[in-house]
Write a structure and sequence with these properties.
The protein is built from one helix and 13 strands, in the order H-E-E-E-E-E-E-E-E-E-E-E-E-E. The protein is an alpha+beta fold and 167 residues long. It is globular and about 80 Å long. 17% of the residues lie in helices and 45% in strands. A hairpin with a 2-residue loop joins strand 4 and strand 5. The strands form three sheets. Strands 1, 3, 6, 8, 11 and 13 form a six-stranded antiparallel sheet that branches. A five-stranded antiparallel sheet has the order 2-7-12-9-10, with no helix packed on it. The protein has a two-stranded antiparallel sheet with strand order 4-5.
Length: 167
């Protein structure tokens, strides 16, 4: 009888460990960043896409994940819940492109804008918590030489996180 109880207790402890491990793995997977290109998006104008390549910015090397050409506008469906949009973008040292301006809208309301010059990596953290749609507009900050793409090292949603000073 004691042996049966001991085996039953051991079996229950094993089941509990398996269940907690499964739930923990699901929570960890739910918290993984979602690349912008994995969202359901509609391009209204311009060009953008995945592109892994090494670029030099401020005499340091970075690997890009995405390019966006000037005058590009895209609107994407958000998965809902708490989340932060993270952009890390740059203009390579070798480019003569003018500064980039990026405007971000959540549910049709502008929530962030950032202009970035050549030679620096620029970071945008935007609270998109509980939003239904995300619109991103990329512009040339000047009227000349606007044919070059802007490069992103990170363009992703970070679920479960919200940036300080959010909406």
């Amino acid at each position: 009888m004691k042996r049966d109880r001991w085996l039953s207790g051991l079996f229950l402890a094993g089941m509990l460990c398996v269940m907690l491990g499964t739930v923990g793995a699901q929570v960890a997977q739910a918290q993984r960043p979602i690349p912008l290109e994995d969202l359901q998006c509609v391009k209204r104008s311009g060009d953008w896409g995945s592109n892994k390549q090494d670029i030099s910015v401020g005499r340091q090397i970075y690997t890009t994940v995405l390019y966006i050409s000037p005058d590009t506008t895209m609107t994407c469906r958000l998965p809902g819940g708490p989340a932060t949009l993270r952009f890390e973008f740059a203009i390579p040292d070798t480019s003569n492109a003018p500064p980039a301006r990026i405007d971000v809208y959540v549910d049709g309301n502008q929530v962030a804008s950032r202009t970035g010059d050549r030679g620096k990596v620029h970071t945008m953290l935007v609270n998109v918590s509980n939003g239904k749609s995300l619109a991103v507009e990329v512009f040339c900050a000047r009227a000349t030489n606007c044919s070059r793409s802007y490069w992103f090292m990170k363009a992703q949603l970070e679920p479960g996180a919200s940036s300080p000073g959010g909406r």
